[in-house]
Amino acid sequence: MINTRYSTISAVITCIGLAVTELAVAAPSIDGIWEPLRGAGTGHPSSEEVRLTPAGQAAFDSFSEENDPTLKCIMPGVPLGIYDPYPLEIIQQEHQVVFLHEHFHMVRRIFTDGRQAPENWWPTLGGFSVGHWEEDTLVVKTTHLSPENLVWHTGMPFSGAPDTYTVERYTFTDDRLMYTAEIFDPTYYEEPYVFSAGRVLAPDGMILEYECYPEYSGF
Amino acid sequence: MMKYITTPLLVVIVSLLGIHPAASHHSRDAYFDMEARVEFIDVTAVSFRVVNPHSQLVFMAKDEQGNEVEWTAGILGASHLRRAGIRESLISPGDKLTVMGSPSRGDKKAMWLYTVVLANGDVADLFGAIRTGEGIITPASEVNNN
After folding, report:
1. Which among A107, A160, A199, B9 could disulfide-bond with A34, CB atoms 3.0 to 4.6 Å apart, if both were Cys?
2. What distances in angstroms separate CA A33 from CA A48, A108, A144, A150, one per listed residue?
3. ipTM
């Protein structure tokens, strides 16, 4: 009787162990430094292609240097910092994926352990990011984004309304990382703003210090 | 080998440039007409800083009345230039230069800098760093002036 019980428990533990192993195997190893993939035919849409709401158009028309955090030596945040032409170091841990951007030393923590943003979490430039794997694709949803964010340097605005969020899909294939980002901001956009980009694994890559001098940030 | 366009004019719009949106950065398109090119010949360097978020060259150029006027040229940030081997020692105050880039959309004496012909005739493609991530200086001996 006791042996049977132990056998059953052992079998359950084995199954759990296999399941955990399966999950671990399902997520590809993405640690390393990823450099921008040049000439990939990707990027942001032109301003003319974007369908803005009247409020979005007004925000676009009134864009100035003061609306761009990077021109004040402040990290770009999300969505603006999702794309940058600088190396990115990815550190993969059991409970999170960490993006260490060279650009403005921006750090993003993407929680992959199932947690959600704590109640009454406040809006910030980076927001609160959670992720999960769909085969070789890391899907990242970011909420709690500040109205001080920006979609793109050309003046594409971001309302920071409570219903705004972004979804990024990072697909890893060998030494390539291709990704798309959808920005959901119905206050400013008639439809989700979408852009894509790519990176390539750089085994010998380096992250340089990105000291920012405010006196050289404007035009 | 780089093709270098010479002109007797102090400032002239010479060509259209096809800049992919993915290369657009730091509101550059909002402040500079990236589809136009402006060129200054025989200017005098005042300062050259390789810093983030933008590097900067300040130079003196003569206006149409022959007066010396200070211009500021924005350049790619230090991370790009350092990877391409560019250091602040590339340009010293007093150096005579030819500079090419895109003009400001406003009335500021400002431009976005692509290329510098250095005092020794070498050509530094300062925008090349973002296109290739590789070395961007062409020795004077290899420059085609035709």
Report:
1. A199
2. 34, 15, 28, 26
3. 0.74
Sequence-separated contacts (24+) of A20-29 with Cβ below 8 Å = A26/A133, A26/A135, A27/A92, A27/A112, A27/A133, A27/A138, A28/A136, A28/A172, A29/A92
Looking up residue A124, the CATH number of its domain turns out to be 2.40.128.20
Using the predicted structure, report yes or no on whether residue B131 has a pLDDT greater than 70: no
Q: Is A122 on the interface with B (CB under 8 A)?
A: no
A86 CB within 8 Å of a chain B CB? yes
Task: Give the integer Cα–Cα distance in Å for A204 and A32.
Answer: 9
The total number of structural domains in chain A stands at: 1
Which positions in chain A touch B50 (Cβ < 8 Å)? none
B51 Cβ neighbours under 8 A, 6+ residues apart: A211, A213, A216, B77, B78
Q: Which two tokens stand for residue A124?
A: 């910030």
- For residue B49, the chain A residues in CB contact (below 8 A) are 213, 216
Domain of A141 in residue numbering reads as 2-217
